[in-house]
Specification:
By secondary structure, the chain is an alpha+beta fold. The chain is 49% helix and 18% strand. The protein has 14 helices and eleven strands. The strands form three sheets. Strands 6, 7, 8, 9 and 10 form a five-stranded antiparallel sheet that branches. A four-stranded antiparallel sheet has the order 1-2-4-3, with helices on both faces. The chain has a two-stranded parallel ribbon with strand order 5-11. The longest helix is centred in the middle third of the chain and has 36 residues, at 280-315. It is extended, with a radius of gyration of 34 Å. The model has no long low-confidence stretch (mean pLDDT 92).
Length: 450
């Protein structure tokens, strides 16, 4: 067996593989013996079929299979051993690849190889990259405190509606004359939160409403024909919503007012765990620390975006084997047409350029990923997911179970590894480059993404 490598230009190469039949004859003979043991051919007992008959029926297909296995194994080993910086996968060279003739003793294959462009990226104190520090205001702290208090609050019955109250009542569909519609919708104990109504005129109908009041409104107008919200309110399927766009009456049976939780040790423990916080002052500081940590993550995220752009501009436009990469892209998306490749190629090249830059920086900084770091990232991702629902005091056994489930999914682990690398790379860059620090408000920061 012989493998030769020819560099056509800086980013294109040709890999030629010559395989002799003798290179894989031993494995072919071994496979045929297994076939003979298992073969079920009329007229012969199992395991007693003549080898000559087995060879006539199976030798060529087995030979073809073993040639493919040997070729793939040796090509991958050659690329790895010779540290060839290949992009994508080898593709058969249409001009130099010879048709496989299994009646011969020698087989030749030729592959086009896409090579990564050579470049060098170094980032240090001479490189100045923006870093945005988001100001934490008292208003932001107060909003978060109020949110925690609302989530831990309790509803109590009141006689008159005010903003954000919840109503329960009888919802009845009307006909064009304003009477209860025959066979129309009639829902008892229908739950309604007027604060969620989008149309201001319709929302105003519920202002200062009292228990036993009968209010007339139009749900379709109130919720601006949102099929999801209307089907939920009217207890019908989305496709049926269009047939119920008239007026309804709503007889208020009950009004529940949310009373926010008082500052107490029970409340503090519910949010942050037992005895972590013991006063309102400490609670507000804990909330502020949490907001700062979250916003720091946002700052780091923006810093990585700016670092990526800075590094790509510093490297400049790289030369890629465009024709070959487009073939590889089409091969990986066989269900797509060439138009898909053309429209997405430029974006793919940008991602590939950053991948190459990032890989070089990761190697230069000696960044490694440990299994414990992957688990910790899974833990943080789970905590962040629960936090979206206002749950910050998660039992350890429940948390461990979620982490275990994430670690069992290969695609989740790959994503977690990438996040760990991004975080560690960001931390290295923050230490090594010069930060152009700028303090901004949250609104100013959000506008940077527009």
């Amino acid at each position: 067996m012989n493998i030769s490598f020819e560099k056509i230009d800086d980013v294109d190469a040709l890999l030629t593989v010559n395989i002799d039949k003798a290179d894989c004859q031993e494995k072919v003979d071994k496979a045929l013996k297994v076939y003979r043991q298992k073969a079920n051919i009329p007229g012969f007992r199992r395991g007693m079929v003549p080898m000559s008959l087995i060879k006539r029926q199976f030798e060529k297909s087995v030979l073809a299979e073993e040639i493919d296995k040997l070729m793939e194994e040796k090509v991958n080993a050659y690329i790895k051993d010779n540290k060839i910086q290949m992009l994508g996968m080898p593709l058969p060279n249409k001009e130099k690849s010879k048709p496989v003739d299994l009646n011969t003793d020698n087989f030749e294959f030729a592959f086009d190889i896409a090579l990564a462009p050579e470049f060098k990226i170094e980032l240090g104190k001479d490189d100045k990259i923006p870093y945005y520090i988001i100001e934490v205001t008292d208003e932001m702290v107060n909003q978060q405190v109020d949110s925690f208090r609302d989530r831990a609050g309790k509803y109590e019955k009141v006689n008159e509606y005010s903003d954000n109250d919840m109503m329960k009542g009888l919802l009845v569909e009307l006909d064009e004359n304003g009477n209860a519609k025959e066979d129309g919708i009639n829902i008892e104990s229908a739950m309604l939160m007027p604060s969620f109504i989008k149309n201001e005129e319709q929302k105003a109908i519920f202002k200062n409403a009292k228990v036993n009041d009968v209010l007339t409104f139009n749900p379709a107008i109130a919720y601006e024909n949102n099929d999801t919200e209307l089907s939920s309110l009217l207890k019908i399927k989305k496709e049926e919503v269009a047939g119920h766009n008239g007026n309804f009456t709503y007889q208020v049976e009950e009004i529940q007012h949310l009373v926010p939780a008082e500052f107490s040790q029970e409340f503090f423990d519910q949010v942050y765990g037992k005895d972590v916080v013991k006063s309102e002052e400490d609670f507000r500081q804990k909330v502020k620390d949490g907001i700062e940590a979250q916003l720091k993550g946002d700052s780091n995220y923006k810093f990585m975006i700016d670092s990526r752009e800075y590094a790509m501009n510093k490297v400049g436009k790289l030369t890629f084997p465009d024709a070959l990469l487009k073939r590889i892209m089409l091969e990986n998306n066989k269900d797509k047409a060439e138009e898909y490749v053309e429209s997405n190629y430029e974006g793919s090249i940008k991602e590939l350029t950053w991948h190459l830059i990032k890989s070089q920086l990761v190697e230069a900084f000696g960044i490694k990923v440990e299994n414990g770091e992957i688990k910790e990232m899974a833990r943080q991702a789970t905590l962040a997911q629960f936090a979206q629902y206002g749950m910050s005091n998660i039992p350890e056994d429940l948390l461990d179970n979620y982490v275990k489930q994430m670690m069992q999914k290969p695609e989740s682990v790959d994503n977690l590894v990438n996040r760990v690398i991004e975080n560690k790379l960001g931390a290295e860059l923050i230490e090594k480059v010069t930060l152009d620090k700028k303090t901004v408000t949250l609104d100013e920061f959000n506008k940077l993404f527009q």
